[in-house]
Structure to design on (705 residues):
């Protein structure tokens, strides 16, 4: 027998606002009366659901309370594609879509060690069946652009009090289910609830036995006495309604995806895959939904890695908000933090000390850098340290024979043999000094971890690895992550954009033995930036063509479809730094305190960041550094370097002194390779910083003679 229950009312639960305790108590009593009346009405509505057991009817009555809070409840639906299988209930509301299996068991359920048992019997097949029908529902709602994260399997136990989880399946008792669902963070608006529920109503049709079909909007109140039901948690419902009313809806992108994004999230890849696309095209959004999707389907864990160490905290907060059921199955980490932890777990000795490693390089430069041919190209040691870090060690080069003919992508300076010999001598001296001090640098940590993984395949619990901002990783870093999962189906997903490379050097995936042919996708729709902002940013890198890590040559000015609204770019040039800084403060004050939490001041260097930390603090503007920020809203301006802003976005972005020269132009007027290379890198960094702005971008300059 089928019942489709609807309710016209969708208001949030009312709650006491009276000034006095007496008034509040009155209000609570009135609300309790209301809820009990609603329950009685709901029990009346489900009384004719003959196919259901008494227990199912009781659960349906409890869930029917939700229809007063904007939910739609579909009872006893046909499972599409099967002859006789049914789905107990489908529930669609502000909190998303729930696929519900009601259990009326004699024994209390227990979820332990990945199994569902009751009275000594195992009920794993019931769980599998629920997961299967959840997949069917996910498929159905993908036509409405809903991500699978919005569809949740739920087992409700009639006559019981239960709160547990078994993998992605939520287990709730008759008592807990209503308050738990009311308290869900809102993700669907009323019109979306309607559209999704209508869609599911068609996809999961009702049985044809119309004699049993009841559609009642306003039930007649039954004459029986009110329920005295210990499994009706009036206070829980009231508190949940208050909590839901307080919590802001989650971001649209945490529920709805563009069909191209959704296809990538749900795709079966037969090996390593690559998602690329210009800034703001939703690559990270795809990566997060993909991680959640895989976590719901594989028994192993998922590793989600980026280079920057502040980003994993933010991304973890996002995943926990959009897919709490799987959040514990995804490990977010920066690559180096993960590698260090892995070595400790495996008992491999390592002594990371970048300070002492830096000293080892300085000493090597004094004896093997100064006065050599290297100084004729660049007298400052920084470039040569980068050569060792990114070109030699970053690419796992261990012999001069490998280094001598090595192509150096993104290094514009041509090094002839004498230069390479000098670099190699410098490198060897650095290694001698470093090992003499008994310390490792960051590259060593990755190399040690790679050796360990190659020596003990299967040493980690990961079935999939998602790499975000892959363009920032070194060759050894990418090889390490590839080694964790190899070429397994749905194993490695590399997400990033070569145009946003902010570190020197480069490599090709094919050199690392990673073949993504036929498994690459480019996203083109920008969801983030106002046209004015994107145009200004693209103008900075328009002439800088680049080779992506998959080897594709790409021009600086790329085709992007814009979806975002209007914006504004303000350019301000001051004669002095003091006046420039005054103008920055004026711009922040003009936005006002309400806008500060969604505003950022981004700086070229750490020293600059300190300067602006002092300036904002003196001006009484609250701030939080990007190192502290974890993705949760905080009442202050975000302050950080361009590097730390990677992967983030803000409504309003301010870039003080944004066009300070990266390097002084050579005095003889020639534009040598190293200076050119530096300026190019700085343009990429500026491009990244500018594209963090959604609506407004403030570009400060100081006029220099
Ligand atoms: N399907 C979507 N619906 C609505 N907004 C979206 C969608 N996808 C992405 N966005 C918006 O676009 C923003 C940019 O997405 P995301 O950070 O994933 O882009 P990206 O390509 O990784 O950017 P970048 O490379 O610049 O870091 C998101 O924060 C979100 O606000």
């Amino acid at each position: 027998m089928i019942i489709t229950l609807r309710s016209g009312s969708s208001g949030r639960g009312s709650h006491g606002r009276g000034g006095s305790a007496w008034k509040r108590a009155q209000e609570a009593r009135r609300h309790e009366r209301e809820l009990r009346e609603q329950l009685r009405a709901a029990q009346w509505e489900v009384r004719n659901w003959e196919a259901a057991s008494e227990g199912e009817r009781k659960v349906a009555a409890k869930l029917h309370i939700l229809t007063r809070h904007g939910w739609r409840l579909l009872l006893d639906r046909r499972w599409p594609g099967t002859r006789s299988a049914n789905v107990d209930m489908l529930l669609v509301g502000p909190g998303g879509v729930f696929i519900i299996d009601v259990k009326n068991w004699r024994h209390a359920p227990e979820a332990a060690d990945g199994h569902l048992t009751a009275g000594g019997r195992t009920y794993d097949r019931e769980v599998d069946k629920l997961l299967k029908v959840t997949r069917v529902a996910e498929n159905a709602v993908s036509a409405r652009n809903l991500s699978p994260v919005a569809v949740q399997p739920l087992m409700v136990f009639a006559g019981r009090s239960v709160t547990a989880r078994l993998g992605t399946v939520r287990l709730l008792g008759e008592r807990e289910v209503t308050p738990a669902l009311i308290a869900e963070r809102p993700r669907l608006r009323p019109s979306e609830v309607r559209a999704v529920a209508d869609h599911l109503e068609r996809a999961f049709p009702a049985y044809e036995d119309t004699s049993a079909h009841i559609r009642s909007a306003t039930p007649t109140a039954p004459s029986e006495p009110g329920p005295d039901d210990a499994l009706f948690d009036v206070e829980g419902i009231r508190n949940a309604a208050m909590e839901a009313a307080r919590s802001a809806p989650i971001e649209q992108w945490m529920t709805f995806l563009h069909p191209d994004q959704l296809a990538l999230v749900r795709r079966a890849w037969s090996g390593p895959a690559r998602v690329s696309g210009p800034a703001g095209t939703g690559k990270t959004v795809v990566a997060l939904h993909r991680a959640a999707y895989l976590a719901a389907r594989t028994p192993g864990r998922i590793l989600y890695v980026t280079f920057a160490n502040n980003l994993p905290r933010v991304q973890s907060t996002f995943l926990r908000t959009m897919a709490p059921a799987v959040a514990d199955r995804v490990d977010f980490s920066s690559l180096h933090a993960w590698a260090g932890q892995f070595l400790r777990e495996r008992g491999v000795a390592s002594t990371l000390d970048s300070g002492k490693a830096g000293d080892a390089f300085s000493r090597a430069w004094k004896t093997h850098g100064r006065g050599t041919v290297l100084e004729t190209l660049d007298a400052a040691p920084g470039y040569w340290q980068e050569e060792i870090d990114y070109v030699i060690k970053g690419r796992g080069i261990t012999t001069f024979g490998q280094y001598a003919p090595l192509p150096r992508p993104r290094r514009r300076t041509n090094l002839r043999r004498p230069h390479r010999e000098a670099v190699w001598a410098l490198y060897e001296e650095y290694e001698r000094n470093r090992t003499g001090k008994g310390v490792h640098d960051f590259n060593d940590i990755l190399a040690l971890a790679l050796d360990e993984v190659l020596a003990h395949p299967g040493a980690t619990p990961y079935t999939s690895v998602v790499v975000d901002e892959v363009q920032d990783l070194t060759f050894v870093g990418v090889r390490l992550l590839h080694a964790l999962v190899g070429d397994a189906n749905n194993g490695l997903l590399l997400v990033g954009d070569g145009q946003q490379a902010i570190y020197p050097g480069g490599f090709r995936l094919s050199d690392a033995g990673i073949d993504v042919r036929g498994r690459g996708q480019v996203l083109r729709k920008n969801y983030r930036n106002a046209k004015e902002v994107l145009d200004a940013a693209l103008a900075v890198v328009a002439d800088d063509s680049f080779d992506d890590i998959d080897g594709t040559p790409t021009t600086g000015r790329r085709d992007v479809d814009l979806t975002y609204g209007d914006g504004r770019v303000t350019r301000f040039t001051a004669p002095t730094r003091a006046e420039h800084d005054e103008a920055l403060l004026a711009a922040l004050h003009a936005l006002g305190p309400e806008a500060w939490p969604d505003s950022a001041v981004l700086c070229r260097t750490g020293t600059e960041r300190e300067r602006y930390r002092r300036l904002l603090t003196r001006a009484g503007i609250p701030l939080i550094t990007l190192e502290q920020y974890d993705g949760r809203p905080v009442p202050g301006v975000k302050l950080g370097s361009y590097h730390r802003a990677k992967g983030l976005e803000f409504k309003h972005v301010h870039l003080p002194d944004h066009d300070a020269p990266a390097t002084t132009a050579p005095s003889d007027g020639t534009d040598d390779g190293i200076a050119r290379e530096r300026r190019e890198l700085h343009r990429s960094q500026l491009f990244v910083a500018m594209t963090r702005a959604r609506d407004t971008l403030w570009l400060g300059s100081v006029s220099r003679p």
Remarks:
- The chain is about 40% helix and 20% strand.
- Residues 252-253, 256-258, 261, 277, 279-285, 497, 500, 527-528, 647, 649, 691 surround adenosine-5'-triphosphate (CB under 6 Å).
- The mean pLDDT is 87.
